[in-house]
Amino acid sequence: MAISVDLYLDSKTQSSIRVYGSVSTGGTNAIGYEFTIDGGASGSGYVSLTPTTSTTKYFTYSGLSPGTTYFMRVTFTFQGGATQSSTLYATTDSPPSPSPITGLGGWINGDGYSPGSLSFSWNASYPATYYSYSLLRNGSTYTNSTTSSTSVSFSSLPSGTYQLYLVPYNGSISGSGTYSSGYTIQDKPNLVPSAPVVNARPDGGLGLSWGYISQASYYELYYKPSSSSSWSSATVYSTSTTLTLTYGVVYDFKVRTYSSFGYSDFSYINSATVNPKTPSISGDYNGATVTIYTSGVTGTFDSIIVDRQNYSSGSVVDSKSVSINGGYVQWAIPSDQIANYKFRAYSVSNGVTSNNYSSVLSFQRPQNFNWTGGDKVTGNNFTVTASDWNSLATRVNQFRTYKGLATKSFTTVSSGSSITAAIFNQVATAINDMNSTGGVVPIVTKGDTATAYLFNRLKNCLNTIY
């Protein structure tokens, strides 16, 4: 009679399968069993798990993978050497699915403005071994990963509405996914004021103003020469200020706000040139030539312009320029025409002129001076009244102004007092400074005789200054 054997499933777990063999017909007295297993369903590649001399028909396959189907075989050996085999398919138990997620919630860290931070937490799912999550931004996946914790945090998030999609896993077995509520991170308001503009041009500076921002706690104004890379700054609690700067220099300006949202971006950069310094002028008129000297211009400038104007109307007849402080310009003007003109100057830097013109200089020749009663006569007794002498001193200063020279401080003579050598020499020296075409007035010393010649010489030298 043919021998027939069978292999039966006794029990199983996630990691083991227990089987037993049985002789259904025929042979008795089995003397050994060989149990083999294949991790697939092909029936090939058996690995012997027990020796052929085993005398038990029960066997437990252990160390198996959960939820995996295995192909097993038992071979009976009987007395006399006969063998007979039987096979069996069996699948290990699958792990249990994790319980649904509960308590999933989130919160925004900080002020809720980008770059922002979000955190989420949830109750543990049993028997979850880890959690897979996706952070969605505006409905699309922003990032995803896994964690064995029951919380997760995200930082440096751009603006948008965020949700967490969370799935528990027990090994390879997933539970049902859960979405959190949505949490919105906003862009910070960018409270950028309009760029600074010039609203005033005080001497040696600039007045600036910019746009009002209602949320601003204060403004930071930055400025620098355009040729420099180094910025200076000023904190301003209104929308305007005045800066003291360098004459004639081109400056760049920008401004930003500070508010509860922090610093805004900077405004656009505007540039402006500080008005150059107003020049001073002096001059003289000699040999039918007017010479105008410039001075007093500090800071930066491109040129100093000297205008020749019509004396009566003020209209500009023509102009000449110099490019250095202390330079001079000249005009050839006949003496019978010099009274028709006056002169002024201003400076220019980058197309911007000085705030003011210099003082006006003219060469209107004063009238000649004459002694009361005419010239003094040699050999006769003569007198010089205090009034005449003080009038002469006044006329000398008028001529000095006409020549573009500084006036002098003369000693005033009182009625009954003497005209000393020192008083005489004050006036004589002031006349000689003007290079009279009539020569020079002699300088006297104490004890010299006061002659008619000396007093007439004062008058004649003064009257021949042109």
Oligomer: single chain
Total discrete domains: 5
CATH architectural group of the largest domain: Sandwich
The CATH class of the largest domain is Mainly Beta
The overall pLDDT, averaged over residues, is: 91
Structure annotation, total helices: 3
Low-confidence stretches: none
Question: What is the CATH homologous superfamily assignment of the largest domain?
Answer: Immunoglobulins
State the shape: rod-shaped
Cα gyration radius (Å): 57 Å
Sheet/helix structural class: mainly beta
C-alpha termini separation: 163 Å
Percent of residues in beta strands: 35-45%
Helix content: under 10%
| CATH topology annotation of the largest domain | Immunoglobulin-like
Number of strands: 32
Explain the layout of strands and helices.
Elements: E1 4-12, E2 17-25, E3 30-38, E4 47-48, E5 58-61, E6 69-78, E7 83-91, E8 105-109, E9 116-121, E10 130-137, E11 140-147, E12 151-157, E13 160-170, E14 173-174, E15 178-179, E16 183-185, E17 197-200, E18 205-209, E19 218-225, E20 232-236, E21 240-244, E22 250-259, E23 262-263, E24 270-273, E25 280-286, E26 289-295, E27 303-310, E28 316-322, E29 328-332, E30 341-349, E31 352-353, E32 361-362, H1 386-402, H2 421-432, H3 452-463
Antiparallel strand pairs: 1-2, 2-5, 3-4, 3-6, 6-7, 8-9, 9-12, 10-11, 10-13, 13-14, 13-15, 13-16, 17-18, 18-21, 19-20, 19-22, 22-23, 22-24, 25-26, 26-29, 27-28, 27-30, 30-31, 30-32
